[in-house]
Amino acid sequence: MAKMTLNELETFIPMALQTVDLPAVWGAKRTGKVRDLYQKSGKQILITTDRVSAFDRVLGTIPFKGQVLNQLSAWWFEQTQAIVANHVITIPDPNVTIAREAEPLPVEVIVRGYITGVTQTSLWYLYAQGERQPYGIPLPDGLQKNASLPTPIITPTTKATGGAHDERLTREEILAQGLVPETIWAQVEEVALALFAYGQAVAKQAGLILVDTKYEFGLVDGQLTLIDEIHTPDSSRFWTQDSYKKGQEPENFDKEYLRIWFAAQGYRGEGQPPVMPPSFIANVAARYIAAYERLTGKDFSPGEQPAAARIEENLKKNSD
Ligand SMILES: Nc1ncnc2c1ncn2[C@@H]1O[C@H](COP(=O)(O)OP(=O)(O)O)[C@@H](O)[C@H]1O
Ligand SMILES: [Mg+2]
Description:
binds adenosine-5'-diphosphate; five-stranded antiparallel beta sheet; alpha+beta; 30% helix; D-amino Acid Aminotransferase, Chain A, domain 1
């Protein structure tokens, strides 16, 4: 299928997937910012919707974003199986992953290869405020915004619930507070850096730079398991290699594009968010799709629209 133009993408805006209400046999629905979650027979059903969030708030919907995230994650999960076990059982629909239910570790594992960002937990924000040991990791003086770090670092945060903001953590705090047992945390660190190195190598082949990313881990039968999503434009920052030149702001292939637009409207997470114009939404959709295509080397093939009925139908076929 030929690539969708921006005008075509605009026509899909009214069909963007806001939420999916499955019949009662699927149990109670839980909603994250982006995913609708159901549990059935010890399995976690993750429906990735088209909701988009930034500054820890849902800010609207972007057509095809859910499909891109679900299929891109599925691709990375498959590619990284040898590095760490993951939660995927099957992908019954472009927007759905049926996963093993994990006991999530209460820590978000953020890995950074560069010093950048606009939010108040971003490394650049903290560094520019004069902090030289953010997250307990010593950083040299004289780093410029967007500079690569001598070696990728892990900057964990708490996993906030109910609209709260994530708080910074150090390795020492994680262990002292007993958030994660030491042997598991050591494994997390090793796996996270290996995943990041692999992600950077794949991104490089696609003409992109994997700048930073967030992993979530859980335990399944006591075994460390990668859950949630991996190396998507929601969980990661990607820059185009071409645009990465000294002293310039690189082109963003990720949610930073959205954050920058909202920040330019004066929005930083408080109060009523501004409404995104259709041309901007189409642009964001095109970027999500392009990220999928560049990273996987595959053509994006849009699922039948609207997605909600299709999802229910595909889940029914997988209901045992
Ligand atoms: N295999 C799994 N088992 C249990 N919980 C999971 C699993 N995979 C993902 N999750 C959780 O499901 C939620 C995904 O929904 P999402 O909308 O991304 O939430 P959030 O708003 O917290 O980012 C997250 O809370 C994540 O930790
Ligand atoms: Mg999430």
